[in-house]
Design brief:
Helix content is 29%, strand content 24%. The protein has six helices and 15 strands. The protein has helices at 11-16, 18-34, 41-54, 122-148, 154-165, 262-265; strands at 58-59, 71-75, 78-80, 94-103, 106-115, 170-171, 177-179, 186-190, 207-210, 213-215, 221-223, 230-232, 238-240, 243-248, 251-254. Strand 14 and strand 15 form a beta hairpin. The longest helix is centred in the middle third of the chain and has 27 residues, at 122-148. The radius of gyration is 17 Å and the shape is globular. The two termini are 31 Å apart.
Length: 276
Amino acid sequence: MAFRKSFYKTPAELRLMVEPGLVTLASLDAVRAAIRPGATTLDLDGIAGAAIHARGGVSNFKMVPGYRHTICASVNDDVVHGIPNSRPLEPGDIVSIDSGADVGGWSGDSAITVVVPDASRPEMVAARQNLSDVTEGSLWHGIARLAVARYLNEVGEAIEDFVESQGTYGILTDYIGHGIGRSMHEEPPVFNYRVRARGPEVKPGLVVAIEPMITAGTIETITRDDDWTVATADGSIASHWEHSVAVHRDGIWVLTAADGGASGLAAFGITPVRPA
């Protein structure tokens, strides 16, 4: 399969992608601090928007035709693309927040999952936290493989191997990661599971958003009546974690992590290097 060379960025373009990554991170940090019982995902949407604007960015989610919000907020059995609403969060909810920022025409994209504390149901909270931890762990396994991979689709192998080693979880196959740059969604596709094709070559200038979406049950999904929110068909809970990652001549750099991914990659013996 032939791939266009245009999605490989120049060193100067990679440097321009650092700030939108950090602005995206700032929006998620602000949201994470505000997640508690009684808060609504509409509240969180406003908090994310304010954080992005405070750093001179704009929401790239609002650039998607027909979407009017700064974040996607997916709660419990909603997996991805959830529209913020006025329902108060409840103790024990598992909440996935996806956010993105545009700065100077360049995009960042990242997602986190947070479990709302519930002291009355510690076993349920622990199970939901474990799902989030497995999803985040699979993300870091994928990023670590990207650092040494020859071809992009090795990332999906690493994610699948890790998830399968952690128990019975489902990896969504209908929704995957993507390239990122001038637009939030670009080529190439980034699979979270094994595929037969090798994918494009991993070489300097490749920038991708790796985003495993893992469920506690089925991988079958439905789209709710709002035509955006994707939920599990069996009502099982889900988790979504994502980072935007740049490959350059000196290594890799996680654009949406404050330390470039150093803490997440330390266990793999990998030290990220900021694009020069």
